[in-house]
TrEMBL record:
Family: Belongs to the ABC transporter superfamily.
Native source species: Devosia riboflavina
Entry protein name: ABC transporter ATP-binding protein
GO MF term list: ATP binding; ATP hydrolysis activity
Alphabetical list of InterPro entries matching this protein: AAA+_ATPase, ABC_carbohydrate_import_ATPase, ABC_transporter-like_ATP-bd, ABC_transporter-like_CS, P-loop_NTPase
ATP-binding is among the record's keywords: yes
Alphabetical keyword list: ATP-binding, Nucleotide-binding
Source domain of life: Bacteria
One matching Pfam family: ABC_tran
Annotated ABC transporter domain residues: 7-242, 260-503
Length: 503
């Protein structure tokens, strides 16, 4: 077809108050290229693509498509120019079918839809596509891989042939990720599309990308050919001379005390449909049990139950053989810590400062609360400064509202707070989701150190590599229950993958 556009953004600058989030950055993505945009958390990747997409109006800079300067003031303008974006999280309407989602996404969708005509047109469109999604299926019933394919089909349906993908594989199994990137790579090679992909995974960049651009602290630090550059070169451009901490090793334990027990847990959603049924699992002191599974199989509901955000309809949580009701006073009493999904929403007060959020679990204890209920600003700030440094949280100041931090930095701030206490039980859900590799190394080391110190760790993760690296045992969740449990040494990726797929 040869319809892939080229895109060139020059001198892009975006200032947020005291912070230059993007400082004179230029990027060139030739037609039919599969280009990676790399950088640590907070480097400015989202700011760059949001400025190109018209979500932000840059303070300076210009965008050329196929060599011609274009004016993009809103995301609608970007769409009209054939630039589309796929986000980390799905944007489809779950209760509609795949076909309905495609048709309503059109700017010119008629108010009365002639479904016979639309379906014929859609089947013809699907014929020309390299991958298929069942058009009559309700989106809620599709797997994560199918939903992601539908997001991409939507861009093609809207004729958006410059695709910006924000970590598109974070919700996919490794097999699904390779399949999807492979198909996009083939389309790019045929010059049907041009892809700009934000990624933190060097393996994917090496396997599928031709060009790359690296940002660091809002500045361009390098670009080139992703095939000839080495991973070491690319990571140096990303992190400069910041040292990557060495991974904490697993130590042997004699302490086999049972600490956390999930005993026959059941839960329903608002409509009364079961989301968890008969969850039985024990976690010992000094053990990491990884819960693997394709997203949407009850993992979020389980984390919500453990965090006290969702009621159980039956069953019990026990800690050290005592019934545990998940509420704030008990979290402190039983030394239960954790990172829920979407930490900005579930574990912070977005408008409060980074320092206040870091103190949140400690705000009513000395030394922070030495003035009674008045939070004492001196110790609070000092403690915050220590944690910010130790966990490398990027913020303009401890006083900045936590909602102004990049996604990865909010996560690091919450982990800094939760991992810095005296932990008996640690419950973490996708702790490294969207983090850059230096942070992944840090966070995984911290989790391992808590295990080595004797904490019982429940690690819910959609990233199988993470479970294989950290867990002592793995449990697979499928259809709201645990279908498989094994010691890590006695199983492998394929067997776990088959159970994840429900076989
Ligand atoms: N709306 C905003 N207001 C103030 N500061 C912001 C805003 N959006 C982003 N920033 C800041 O701009 C910097 C760049 O953030 P950006 O989200 O572009 O990083 P990123 O490279 O996409 O990071 P991540 O990998 O964590 O998503 C960060 O320091 C962030 O705190």
């Amino acid at each position: 077809m040869g319809r892939a556009p080229s895109l060139e953004a020059t001198g892009m600058t975006k200032i947020f108050g005291p912070l230059v989030a993007l400082d004179d950055v230029s990027i060139s993505v030739p037609a039919g290229s599969f280009h990676a945009l790399l950088g640590e958390n907070g480097a400015g990747k989202s700011t760059l693509v949001k400025s190109i997409m018209g979500f932000y109006s840059p303070d300076k800079g210009s965008v050329k498509l196929d060599g011609k300067e274009v004016s993009i003031k809103t995301p609608k303008d970007a769409r009209a120019h054939g630039i589309g974006m796929v986000y980390q999280h799905f944007t489809l309407v779950p209760c509609l079918t795949a076909a309905e989602n495609l048709v309503i996404s059109r700017a010119d969708a008629p108010s009365v839809i002639d479904w016979r005509k639309e379906k014929k047109a859609l089947s013809e469109f699907m014929e020309t596509m390299p991958f298929k999604v069942p058009l009559d299926a309700q989106v809620a019933t599709l797997s994560a891989g199918e939903k992601q394919k539908l997001e991409i089909l939507k861009l093609l349906y809207l004729d958006q042939r410059f695709m910006i993908l924000d970590e598109p594989t974070s919700v996919l199994t490794p097999g699904e990720a390779d399949e999807m990137l492979g198909l996009l790579g083939d389309m790019a090679a045929k010059k049907e599309i041009t892809v700009l992909m934000i990624s933190h995974k060097f393996r994917e960049v090496k396997a599928f990308c031709d060009g790359f651009t690296v940002l660091r602290r809002g500045k361009l630090t390098g670009s080139g050919d992703a095939q000839s550059a080495s991973i070491a070169e690319m990571s140096r451009m990303m992190i400069g001379d910041t040292e990557v901490r060495e991974r904490a090793a697993r130590t042997q334990h004699n302490d086999k005390r049972e600490v956390l027990e999930l005993a026959g847990i059941f839960a329903e959603d608002a409509e009364g449909t079961p989301v968890l049924s008969s969850i039985n699992l024990k976690v010992n002191a000094g053990e990491i049990v990884g819960i693997a599974g394709v997203s949407g199989n009850g993992q979020s509901a389980l984390v919500e139950v453990l965090a006290g955000q969702r009621a159980m309809s039956d069953g019990a949580i026990r800690i050290q053989a005592q019934n545990f009701a998940p509420k704030r006073s008990n979290f402190d009493r039983y030394k239960v810590f954790g990172l829920p999904e979407e930490p900005l929403k579930n574990a912070t007060v977005p408008r409060m400062s980074v320092a206040e959020n870091l103190a949140f679990r400690a705000f009513d204890k000395p030394p922070v609360a030495s003035l009674g209920w008045w939070m004492s600003p001196g110790p609070l700030r000092k403690r915050a400064e220590e944690l910010i440094k130790l966990y490398r949280v990027k913020t303009t100041s401890p006083d900045a509202p936590i909602e102004t931090l990049s996604g990865g930095n909010v996560q690091r701030a919450v982990l800094a707070r939760e991992l810095s206490g005296d932990v008996d039980v640690l419950i973490v859900a996708n702790p490294c989701f969207g983090l850059d590799f230096a942070s992944v190394a840090d966070i995984r080391s911290q989790i391992m150190e808590q295990r080595n110190r004797g904490a019982a760790v429940l690690l819910v993760s959609e990233d199988l590599d993470e479970i294989l690296e950290l867990a002592d045992r793995v449990a697979v969740m499928s259809g709201g229950t645990i279908t498989y449990v094994a010691a890590i040494q006695e199983t492998d990726r394929n067997v776990i993958g088959q159970h994840m797929a429900g076989h």
